[in-house]
Amino acid sequence: MRSGAGRRAALALTAGGLAISSLLVCTSSASAKVGDLYEDADVPAVMDAMLQLPAEMKLDRAPDPASVDVTTPQDQRIGSTLDRFPKDKVLSEVPQHFDGVANVDFRVSGDNKKEATNAARSVDKGWKVGFIGALDEGYPSISMTDAMTGEANRTFTTSYSIAHTETRSSGWSVGGNVSAGISADGTSGKVGGNFGYSEMTTKSTTTTDQSTDAKTEHIPAKATGWLEAYANGGWYAGWIVDQDPKHPEVVHAVPARVFYKSDKVGPPVSWLQRGKALPLK
Description:
The protein is mostly beta strands. It is built from four helices and 15 strands. It has one domain. Strands 3, 4, 5, 8, 9, 10, 11, 13 and 14 form a nine-stranded mixed sheet that branches. Strands 1, 2, 6, 7, 12 and 15 form a six-stranded mixed sheet that branches. The two termini are about 25 Å apart.
């Protein structure tokens, strides 16, 4: 985030009792600056400061199956896992979380999509399940409106809803499926995105299951502006590890990317007013 006397702090707007992040930056310079809008270089620092995503995840409970990535091609998922959390690291970590382990069965072939979701659901059989991994991609963009050229005011309506996929009190991570959408005046329809998530902790910040909020934002002259939705969390590349209590000496490790929501905020989505300066003429 830029510094200077013209910077405005992040504002917390309230809609229906729920704090929703509305993050605005203002600069004092008017020449080739976007003004009130976040540029590409601003986004990482702003989201990092708000979400504080841990570099690694080491949890002794199963991720919500809805949060397991089954859309990224298998070779990319496995490649990310081996790069972010290699096998030798797994061998050193697993004995700290699973008792009686003598061997780790790395399952990196076959139908990885099915293997990963089946491993997550092993808790249903009374198995111990956990996840270990490292941050692969923070706060992915899930939807955005079309850009409008300033100077102009534009009203955006944002919304999200959460469908909780698992309600077990033990064994599973708390999680759910999120649907988020944005509509803007002067356009027809709504753009949106969906993602599943697991909570980092069972004592995470509480939030409501749905919210709708309307707000008007300013797009300065000599700039284009739009609203962009970011998931409040990150993809972790690592391993779902399960252990059959009847055969505790061997654990299975399946490569997977899992989305974990930050425990520093309640809502699953943040909307940032994005923009880009137009070339000077």
